[in-house]
């Protein structure tokens, strides 16, 4: 007998955890949450320093197709797998983006998604230990606070920012976020606080109406008469099925939500037909509109004692750090590595900052996959609102095959030139006396002098900073996949609740905005349930 729930949520990432957790607050509403990965409740996930340790079980580790704008290089796209999704393996930086990003969404026809509309959901999700007032929440499930690493590099970074004549900013999530400073993180008492720890773990053994299935790879959405009614999935080598009374909610992220839609017959009809997939509904925007922040990393060797060795050397100091973490939940083991950074304008007449910096207390080469003998530091610079658009499509009709991913980095000349300006702006900070004094060796940019030199190294070294969005975009135009209520256009009983619905990329890290999307989706769904129940006569079924 097939189990039936009111809602089936596919994907336990930031959006999926938030919407499942909130919907299951109503004991009369049953929710099943599926994820292909594991529980992600071990020390390599909960200890922030574990970010430096390879953990393949929690990472899909996708590759891109060759990138024409990057000299044909194949890029790397790590994505979280298991409960918490990418919030279980990210750098924990808590950033919402600029208010202009959300006002822009609303201007595109997405009613209810302006900054004033979404701010209450950011606040509802948040339990901020450091900030209060109009922009922050207390008592939400997502813990947010300052780092407990106690690394003196923060003072050095702030001094360099002042020397380079950049403003120091205390809070990056107020009305404006221009400036440099130290990031807040999604941690609690020195431990990673993923979306799963916030929205699922406190309730998994207490709510009879919430069922969480791990190791469950969704393979197809089931439709009857143009309505989504369930999910086929693989678990333990067996094909299984769940049925949904009300809705199937996709939360697989910017790569796997469009992939599952296409596997299930929702997408461009010609492309689906080429794989022998029957068309349930022709929706050409599925998999289109992929956006991501192109990112360049400055890397320097250094003898400064508070940087992390790529090989995790200096064993005595590492053992002391572990002992301190066990005692106090403070020190090096709490680092998110990207401890400082901020938002800058490459041109003074820009309305909002166009680049973001992540200052890392280790040498980061090829996403940390290439190791060096020396200790050192790095500084990311990414372009916040690139013009380039990419896509995701099916490699085959095999649901277990990885999707084909093309971010189209630097596909537009305007992006390349903006990155040249971002390179120069970031180098100004790197050459400030406070940071220049720490540099023993410039690993990659010592010979880069002219604009052509900069263009060449950008094409040789740019890759993702892990913020893909947009492939099931929200909107009202012909290429929109979901409407402003996040319902998939042209079918019933199906929504998408993750970063893929963003019509345009927000100017910052995408984890907090994706949690906000989950919070807002749950509120919209509950509002519809209330409206529907009020319309039903006594004794009448509430099922659609």
UniProtKB/TrEMBL annotation:
Q: What class of enzyme is it?
A: oxidoreductase
Q: One Pfam match, by short name?
A: GMC_oxred_N
Keyword Oxidoreductase attached? yes
Q: Cite the Glucose-methanol-choline oxidoreductase N-terminal domain residue spans from the record.
A: 80-103, 253-267
Q: Which InterPro entries match?
A: FAD/NAD-bd_sf, GMC_OxRdtase, GMC_OxRdtase_N, GMC_OxRtase_C
Q: Which GO terms describe its molecular function?
A: choline dehydrogenase activity; flavin adenine dinucleotide binding
Q: What is its EC number?
A: 1.1.99.1
Source domain of life: Bacteria
Q: What is this protein called?
A: Choline dehydrogenase
